[in-house]
Design a protein that fits this description.
Low-confidence stretches of chain A: none
Structural class of chain B: alpha+beta
Mean pLDDT of chain B: 91
Largest sheet of chain B: 4 strands, mixed
Helix content of chain A: over 70%
Strand content of chain A: under 5%
Number of strands of chain A: 0
Strand order of the largest sheet of chain B: 2-1-3-4
Distance between the termini of chain B: 54 Å
Oligomer: heterodimer
């Protein structure tokens, strides 16, 4: 360590200046400054404008993309809202349709029931009327048959009772009554 | 031969009979006429028409009598009197007497203009019809 310090001190002494004390060669430094300035100038003249332009362009493109994304997002949100509105409207309409269908179906069932009831009542009424007619017919037939039987029995009895003498009396009586 | 109606023929026959022309001769003429006209089947109708003309025009009534038993003389006379009175006839001829046991009793008298039915059978039929309504 002491050796290094000593060496440095001896070199500084050689240069007899601050740059020398610091180990900087001022000529080299000037050259480096000139080179650096030339480099800065070249960069500022030819590279940076292109880079900044590209960066600006890229930034602008990104901003546009972001704006487009925002716009798309807004449009998507709007579309989502519209779709929701449409869904809502569709649900309401479908609910209304279903409700109407239910009501119509209920009405149809009601009407069918009423029709069936009326038809059933008509059938019952017809059956009763037919039954009444059948009863009347049967009664009339029974009465007729009874009458026929009575007539046959009467004829038989009268045939047995009437002899020639009674027949003669019968004729004479009929002639008297007819005059 | 000229075509004439059965009614006209009946009137001719009735007139001839009433004026005393032979029955046989009139029957032969009527039969010949009907045969010529191809209407022999109308013989019964012609006879009825002649009876009708005799009754209406000359008050000579022919009667067909149906009874359940054969008539005796008294009943026959009573029937003739009855017909004379009811038909206002000058004379009555009983054309036929038929016995039909189905009558049961009583009498059926048929004249050209009337039917008198006092048979038990018809009374029973009327009774049955009335009861049946």
């Amino acid at each position: 360590m002491h050796t290094i310090q000593f060496f440095a001190a001896s070199e500084a002494a050689k240069n007899d200046s601050l740059f020398g004390a610091l180990g900087i060669d001022w000529r080299t430094l000037i050259l480096q400054i000139i080179a650096f300035s030339i480099l800065v100038w070249i960069l500022g003249k030819f590279v940076y404008p292109h880079l900044i332009g590209a960066i600006d362009k890229r930034e602008k493109a990104i901003e546009e993309s972001v704006a487009a994304a925002h716009e798309a997002e807004a449009k998507a949100e709007q579309t989502q809202k519209e779709v929701e509105q449409l869904f809502k409207k569709a649900r309401e309409e479908s609910a209304a349709i279903v409700d109407t269908a239910h009501k119509e179906a209920a009405n149809m069932v009601k009407e069918a029931e009423a029709k069936a009831k009326k038809r059933a009542e008509q059938i019952v009424a017809d059956a009763r009327a037919q039954l009444d007619q059948d009863i009347l017919k049967a009664r009339a037939q029974l009465r007729d048959e009874a009458t026929e039987l009575v007539a046959l029995a009467t004829e038989k009895i009268i045939r047995e009772k009437i002899d020639t003498k009674k027949d003669k009396t019968l004729i004479e009586t009929a002639l008297k009554e007819a005059r | 031969m000229q075509k004439i109606t059965r009614r006209k023929v009946a009137e001719y026959v009735a007139d001839q009979l009433h004026s005393g022309v032979s029955t046989k001769k009139l029957v032969d003429q009527a039969v010949a006429y009907l045969k010529d006209q191809g209407k022999l089947a109308d013989w019964e109708l012609l006879v009825r028409d002649v009876e009708d003309v005799l009754a209406r025009k000359y008050h000579v009534v022919s009667a067909r009598i149906t009874t359940a038993r054969a008539l005796d003389a008294d009943t026959r006379k009573a029937l003739k009197d009855f017909i004379m009175q009811t038909e206002k006839a000058q004379s009555v001829t009983i054309v036929s007497e038929t016995v039909d046991a189905d009558l049961i009793g009583g009498v059926v008298v048929r004249t050209p203009s009337n039917v008198f039915d006092s048979s038990v059978q018809s009374k029973l039929k009327q009774l049955v019809a009335t009861t049946k309504g």
